Structure formats: C-alpha cells, structure tokens
Amino acid sequence: LRLSYLRSGGHDPAVLDQLLHLQLEATVLENGTAGLGRGRRLGTVAPQPAPEAPPAVPAEPPGTGTNALDVALLAVEMENWRLEDELLALKVRRERRADAGSRAAQRHTEELAQLQAEVGMLRWQAEQSRPWLHPPVLPPSVAPPLLP
Known about the structure:
Blueprint: H1 2-7, H2 13-31, H3 66-129
Organism: Lanius ludovicianus (Loggerhead shrike)
Protein name: CCD17 protein
Region (Disordered): 45-64
C-alpha cells in the first residue's frame, strides 16, 4: 500500500506514518512478538506483556531483555522503512520534475514549429499578393551587334 501510495504521487507525512504504523502492526502480528502501543507517531512502540504460555524451550533465560531487543529492532525497522519511503518520495518528485521539464521542452518545440509554419504561410501569401512586375525593358542597343 505504501509503495502504491508513493508511486501514485502521495507524499502526505501523516498518511505515510499511518501506513508505516499499519505495516509494523502487521509485522508484529505475523511474527507473534511484542505488539504496538496505540500511539500514532514513530517511536511510540511500547512493549506488551508476553503471552501466557511460555515457549517449550526458551531462547534465553528470563530477564535478559529479549523483549526490549525486539522492540528496539522493530523501532530500527520502522525508521528504515520511513527512510526508504522518504527516498522513494524524493525519487518520484525528481522524476515528476524531469517529466515536467521534458513536457515543457516538447511544448516549446511544437510552438516553434507552428510559428515557423505560420511565417512560411505569410511569406507565401505575400509573394502571391505582390503585383506581377514585367521584366525590365532595356532601351535599344546603340552598338552594332557582335559577329559570331
């Protein structure tokens, strides 16, 4: 959703933040790890209580801070996603500016061609409306004709 929003021209930080928040919630649900608090801004990730049933073989002894590490990892992931979104938004804006510049250049070229065609038409009309002048008549020659 986030990429589609950015590619279609969206750049509202509030919407991007909400999409990032939803993506983080989905990641948390998929992984079954610590959940999110109900905050709307980045950095509001709050640890949730662990599930009631402990895993069959704990990865680390209790009290070593794995929950805090999961939250920190999710916070880093969120920041990474936010930065990726920002980069993509910048690329989209740059492409739009380049497209706008090329469209302006194309429009300028078309206008120039149209003006040149109009100038050609006006020249042709001017030549057609010019009165026909007869070739200049020279006075009779006073010198005798040259022999071959």
